[in-house]
Amino acid sequence: MGQEFAPETIYVVDDDTLIQKALARLLEAEEYRVECHCDAESFLKFHKSGAPGCVILDVEMPGMNGYDVHKLLLEGNTKRQVIFLTGHGTIPLSVSAIKSGAVDFLTKPVAADQLLEAVKVALERDRMSRRDTEFRSSFQTRLERLTTRECQVLLHVMEGKMNKQIAADLGVTLKTIKVHRGRAMSKMQANSVADLVRDWTLFSAS
Question: For the packed helices 148-158 and 163-170, what is the interaxial angle rounded to 10 degrees?
Answer without folding.
Answer: 130
